[in-house]
Write a structure and sequence with these properties.
Number of domains: 1
Shape: elongated
Strand content: 15-25%
Radius of gyration: 26 Å
Helix content: 25-40%
CATH topology: Nucleoside Triphosphate Pyrophosphohydrolase
Distance between the termini: 40 Å
Structural class: alpha+beta
């Protein structure tokens, strides 16, 4: 009797295992890959222009196309750790600021062949990060890229500087990130992350004017800056590498925090950008709104 039971259990396990092999792991658990991409901005002070860092792919898929630095998330790391690791590996530099801003999950954006089944395509979901770089270190290529460079990213006439046929959906990701950056300056203190530890009010105004591509009234703008609580504070000392000059020395400031503004610092040309961002938010609200109650039996019967 015991032998019969043992044989039955053994046969059942073997049979079940064979079924799983026949079905394939992806039939039980749909396979998708998690990736990260980094949209890294810096200020070109010589040309007073916002720049973004792109790499030219030397591998398939999308070989020879410009793309955002990025790659796949490993099993033992967070999204933030992956973004930092991959960006440093692909560019040779480290950003001074890194923040997650949006996830892209279109089923058509990027499909890859798995190592187990070359006929089956696996979708890639990517989480995009905004980064800010403030130094002037030399960029370094890795073995999956054939070129790397900073591109100008103006608010208008973007296609004059940025290739439209970027890999995957990276052109759209780049547009979203640049719009988000310009909007963020209206309601947060992100501008100081483009500056060194010590800075002047005039330098903050430079950041706004360069990224927004506008001219701001100095007196009016500086009054708005100093009325923001918890953002910047006056420093008794300035940067050590500044040479002394005649006349009254500048007043130096340091960042205290990156607060959300109680009152917006309005971009004179920001209406179109805000409209695009609100349209995205409206679509997102439609996707993530309350799910209607359904009859569970309908799903059980399928």
């Amino acid at each position: 009797m015991t032998n019969n039971i043992s044989f039955f259990l053994y046969f059942s396990l073997i049979n079940r295992f064979s079924i799983l092999i026949a079905m394939g792991e992806s039939k039980r658990y749909p396979i998708s890959l998690n990736a990260v991409n980094v949209v890294c901005f810096k200020i070109d002070w010589g040309e007073r222009m916002l720049n973004v860092l792109l790499v030219k792919r030397s591998i398939n898929p999308q070989k020879n196309k410009w793309s955002l630095p990025g790659g796949f998330v490993q099993n033992d790391e967070t999204l933030e750790d992956a973004a930092r690791r991959i960006f440093i590996k692909e560019t040779g530099i480290a950003p001074s600021y890194l923040s997650q801003f949006r996830t892209y999950s279109s089923t058509k954006r990027d499909k890859r062949s798995t190592q187990y089944n070359t006929d089956e395509k696996t979708r890639v979901i990517t989480t995009a990060f905004t980064a800010i770089y403030t130094k002037n270190e030399e960029l370094q290529l890795d073995d999956e890229s054939e070129d790397i460079r900073w591109f100008k990213i103006p608010r208008r006439y973007l296609t004059r500087y940025i290739p439209e046929n970027m890999a995957f959906d990276h052109y759209d990701v780049l547009l979203d990130a640049s719009n988000r950056l310009r909007i963020s300056l209206e309601y947060s203190g992100l501008a100081t992350r483009f500056l060194p530890e010590h800075f002047t009010l005039g330098q903050i105004q430079d950041i706004y004017e360069i990224i927004w591509e506008v001219e701001l009234d100095p007196a009016n703008f500086r009054e708005k800056l100093t009325n923001v609580e918890g953002w910047i504070k006056e420093s008794k000392t300035g940067p050590k590498d500044v040479e002394p000059r005649r006349g009254k020395p500048p007043t130096w400031y340091k960042e205290h925090d990156i607060p959300q503004f109680d009152r917006m610092i309005t971009n004179p040309n920001g209406a179109v950008i805000r409209e695009k961002e609100s349209e995205y938010q409206k679509n997102l609200d439609n996707l993530t709104g309350e799910i209607p109650v359904v009859d569970v039996k309908k799903y059980k019967d399928k």
